[in-house]
C-alpha cells in the first residue's frame, strides 16, 4: 500500500492542475487577505475572516480535481494492473484517499502561507479555526472519494461531484433560513446538521452566518472526523468483492 | 445534414440517460410541490397558493440541462461517434450544428415536461392563482423555454469545443455552478432585501445587462423585462455558442 501511495503522490506532484491549484491557493489567499479584492462585504471583514472566506475555493477545487485525477484509474485500466500486482481494491481505495488527504494538507499549508503573507496574524485562534476548515475539506474529500472510486464512468462521477457541491451550497442557504425560525434545543440539533456540510462549517466560521449556526469548534471537529470514518467505511464496504470488468 | 440531425435526435430520444434526466426533472417538480403542500398544510395549517410553486423551475434546471447534454453528447467522443460521422461524409460544421440542435432540443423537452408537470400539480394540489393570470404563467414558461434552449446550446458547444479532454466533463457544470453563485450575488445587489439598490456607474450597467440578457440569470426571477430582451439574450447566447463551436471544432484535432 505504501508503494501505491508513493505512486499516487508522484503523479500528484507532477499534475499540472494540482500545481496550478497550489499556486492559486497562495496567490489568491494573499490577495484576499491583504484586501486587494474590493467588495462591500469583504471590505467590512478583518484579515482573518477574509482568509477563511477564500478557503471555500479549496472545496471547489477538489470537486473538480478528484474526478479528473482519480477516474483515469478505470479509463486507463491501471486499477487492473494494480490488482494483478497483488494489491486489493481496498488498498487502492485507501492509497487514493490518503493521497487526496495529503494533497489537501499541502494545499492548506500553501493557503496558510498565503494568509500570513497577506497580513493575517499567525496566532492560536486562527490556527485552530483553519484546522477545523482543513478537517471540513478532508471530510468533503472522503465523501467525494466514494463517488470517484466506486463509480467507473467518468461522466457520472463528474456530474455527481458537482451535484454534491450544488447540494452543499443549497443546504447552507436552506439551513440559514431554517435555523432562524428554530428555537433553543431544536436549533442546537439543527446547527449540528447544518455543519455536516463542509460548506456549512466554512460559512459558520466566516462570520456571515448567525452565531447560533456555529455549535462550537470541538463539535465541528467531531462531525468532520465522524464523517471521514463513516464515508470511508461506506466507500470500502465489500469493495474487494466487486467485479472490475 | 438532415440525416445527421435525424440520427442525433433518434439517439437522444432512445438514450436511457436522457430518459432518466426527464424522470428526475418530473420527480423534482413533484417533490417540490408535494413537499411544500405537506409543509404548508400540516405544519402551517394554511392552503397552498399556486403562486408559491408555479415558478420553482429555477437553478436546478440549469444543472439538469447541462448534465443531460453532457451525458448524451460526450459519448460521441468516447465511443468514436465523431470519427464515424466524418467517415460517412459529414463535414465538421454539419456535425457541430447537428449536435447543437440536439442540445437545444433537450432544453425544449425538459422545459416542456416541467411545464406540464407544474401546471397539472398546480391545478390539483393548490388553491389556484391569487395574483397571476394564465397569460403571465404562459409568459414565464415561454421565457424558461428560450433560456433552456440557450443553455442547452451553450453547454453542448462547450463539450464540442473541449471534447476528448478530461476538462470537458467538468467545465460546463463548473460554469453552471459559478453562474449560480454569480446570479445570487447580482440579484442580491440589484434587489436587496433591506433598503434600496445602492449600485451606480459601470457596475449597475453591467449587472442590469446581465440580469436582462444572460439566460442563466433569467431562471431566478419571474419575467419582468419585455419579451424582446429575453429573446435577444437567448438568441445572442445561441449565436455566440454556434460561432465559437464552429470556429474551434473546425480546427480541433480529433483523437
Textual characterization of the structure:
The complex is a heterodimer of chains A (245) and B (255). Chain A is mostly helical. Chain A has one domain. Chain A has helices spanning 2-13, 16-33, 40-44, 47-54, 56-70, 72-75, 78-84, 89-118, 124-150, 154-181, 184-194, 198-206, 217-235. Chain A is globular. The mean pLDDT of chain A is 88. With 255 residues, chain B is mainly alpha-helical. Chain B is globular, with a radius of gyration of 20 Å. In chain B, 77% of the residues lie in helices and 0% in strands. Chain B has one domain (2-251). The chains are: A mainly alpha (245), B mainly alpha (255). At the A-B interface, helix 5 and helix 10 of A face helix 4 and helix 9 of B.
Question: Uncertain segments of chain A of ≥5 residues (pLDDT<50)?
Answer: none
* Low-pLDDT residue intervals, each spanning 5 or more residues of chain B: none
Q: What's the tally of helices of chain B?
A: 12
Distance between the ends of chain A: 22 Å
Radius of gyration of chain B (Å): 20 Å
Largest sheet of chain B: none
Q: Count every helix of chain A, treating DSSP H or I runs of 4 or more residues as helices.
A: 13
One letter per element, helices H and strands E, the order of chain A comes to HHHHHHHHHHHHH
Span between N and C termini of chain B?
Answer: 23 Å
> Approximately what portion of the residues of chain A adopt beta-strand conformation?
under 5%
Average residue-wise pLDDT of chain B? 87
Radius of gyration of chain A, CA atoms, in whole angstroms: 19 Å
Number of domains of chain A: 1
Shape of chain B: globular
DSSP strand count of chain A: 0
Q: What order do the helices and strands of chain B follow?
A: HHHHHHHHHHHH
- Helix content bin of chain B: over 70%
